[in-house]
Specification:
The complex is a heterodimer of chains A (about 100) and B (about 150). By secondary structure, chain A is an all-beta fold. Chain A is about 0% helix and about 50% strand. Chain A is built from no helices and seven strands. In chain A, the strands form two sheets. Chain A has a four-stranded antiparallel sheet, with no helix packed on it. A three-stranded antiparallel sheet of chain A has the order 1-2-5, with no helix packed on it. The model of chain A has no long low-confidence stretch (mean pLDDT about 85). Chain B is an alpha+beta fold and about 150 residues long. In chain B, about 20% of the residues lie in helices and about 35% in strands. The chains are: A mainly beta (about 100), B alpha+beta (about 150). The interface between A and B is large, with 33 and 38 residues. Strand 5 of chain A pairs antiparallel with strand 7 of chain B, so a sheet runs across the interface.
C-alpha cells in the first residue's frame, strides 16, 4: 500500500485552493537499471478529485509527471468544513484515496 | 484494377484516419488515452485526442521557470480565462512523449492547474485548452533545463 497523500484545502474567497502531494515513484520507463535493462514505466495514470462526494475534476497523467507528484487546483464554491477527496490509480492497478477538510 | 480485398483495406485505412481526426468523438473520449500519451509530438497528441489544430491565444497562460536547474522537477502552471473549457493539457515538446498531463474540467473547478513535470532537455512547453466544441488554444514558453530528468 502506498503512503498517504498530503492534502491541504484552504478557502480563498468563494473558492478553495487544494494542494495535493502524492507519494509515488513515477518511473518514466526511459531509465536503465545497472544491468542496462529498461526499467518499466510505473506512474499514476488517473486522478479524480471530489467535493463533498461529487466528482469535480479528473486528470490523466503520463510518466512525465515528477516523482511524488504535486497537484494544485481550485474548487468553486467550497466552504470551510467541506470535504475534498482525491484518489489516484497507477498503471499497475494500485490505487489510493484520501480526504481532507477545507479550512 | 482494384481487387475487393484492396478496396476493403483502403476503407479501413480511411476509417482510421477519420478516427484520428476526431470525426468519431466517441473514440476520442476513452477513459485513458494511451495513444495520446505515446505520441511523440504535440501535433500527434492533438490528433490522438481528437482536437483540432491549436491556435495561439493570449487567453491561455503557461507558467514556469525560465531556467530549470533540475529537469526532474519543473513546476508548471496552466490556466485559461476562456469559458467552456473541456480539457487542459500540458505538453513538453522535446520529451520522449510530448503529453504530460490531461485535466478534464467540470463546472465546479477553475480552469487553472499546477503540477510538476519531468523534462529531458530544454524545450518549449505548451498549455493547451480544448473547448467543448473541439477547438483548441495554446500558449507556449521556453524552459531551459540544465540537468535532464528522464535518464540515468
Amino acid at each position: 500500500m502506498a503512503d498517504p497523500m498530503r492534502i491541504r484545502a484552504q478557502v480563498a474567497g468563494n473558492n478553495a485552493t487544494v494542494r495535493v502531494l502524492m507519494s509515488h515513484e513515477m518511473e518514466s520507463g526511459q531509465r536503465k537499471d545497472a544491468a542496462g535493462k529498461l526499467v518499466p514505466a510505473w506512474h499514476i495514470a488517473e486522478v479524480t478529485a471530489t467535493h463533498n462526494g461529487k466528482t469535480v475534476m479528473t486528470a490523466e497523467w503520463g510518466p512525465a509527471v515528477s516523482k511524488n507528484p504535486f497537484l494544485q487546483f481550485t474548487v468553486k464554491g467550497a466552504k470551510a468544513g467541506d470535504k475534498v477527496g482525491v484518489s489516484w490509480k497507477d498503471n499497475k492497478g494500485e490505487s489510493r484515496t484520501d480526504e481532507a477538510t477545507v479550512s | 484494377m482494384q481487387t475487393r480485398r484492396e478496396t476493403l483495406k483502403q476503407g479501413a485505412i480511411v476509417a482510421g484516419l477519420l478516427a484520428s481526426t476526431g470525426l468519431f468523438p466517441q473514440y476520442a473520449m476513452a477513459a485513458y488515452n494511451k495513444t495520446a500519451f505515446e505520441a511523440k509530438t504535440p501535433a500527434d497528441v492533438m490528433k490522438a485526442l481528437g482536437a483540432g489544430a491549436p491556435v495561439e491565444s493570449k487567453d491561455v497562460t503557461i507558467g514556469g521557470p525560465d531556467i530549470a536547474e533540475n529537469g526532474a522537477v519543473v513546476p508548471l502552471t496552466a490556466s485559461t480565462t476562456l469559458p467552456g473549457v473541456k480539457q487542459i493539457l500540458i505538453l513538453v515538446e522535446k520529451n520522449p512523449s510530448a503529453l504530460v498531463a490531461v485535466f478534464n474540467m467540470t463546472d465546479s473547478v477553475e480552469p487553472s492547474f499546477a503540477t510538476r513535470t519531468k523534462m529531458g532537455q530544454s524545450s518549449d512547453v505548451y498549455a493547451v485548452a480544448v473547448m467543448a466544441d473541439g477547438k483548441a488554444f495554446f500558449a507556449k514558453k521556453e524552459v531551459k533545463v540544465t540537468l535532464g530528468g528522464c535518464g540515468g
